[in-house]
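At your convenience, could you comment on the folded chain following this short note?
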Amino acid sequence: MTRRISVLLSLLVLALVVVGVLFAQQRPADDISPKLHPNLAAAQRLTNQAYDKLVVAQGANDFDMEGHAQKAKQLLVEASHQMKEAAMAINKERKK
């Protein structure tokens, strides 16, 4: 009986980890002001569109594309973050 409980607890923990990973996936931010930084905001919007297209592509294919689509999504999130950092650097420079 204790072995059965251990197996069930292990499966429960595994399920919780999988759910956590799914919810932890980020999408690119959409937080650059188009009034202050129109070009950066447009670039960030395009990263969001590319991310959305990758999600659709992953759903349309029964395979994971050997992890390349997931890696591309991660890179788009990072690119969006770097654009936000660039906008913040410009704001900081303007305040001087």
Q: What stands out?
A: The chain has one domain: 2-95. The longest helix spans residues 68-95. The chain has a mean pLDDT of 84. Residues 5 and 11 are 10 Å apart (CA to CA).
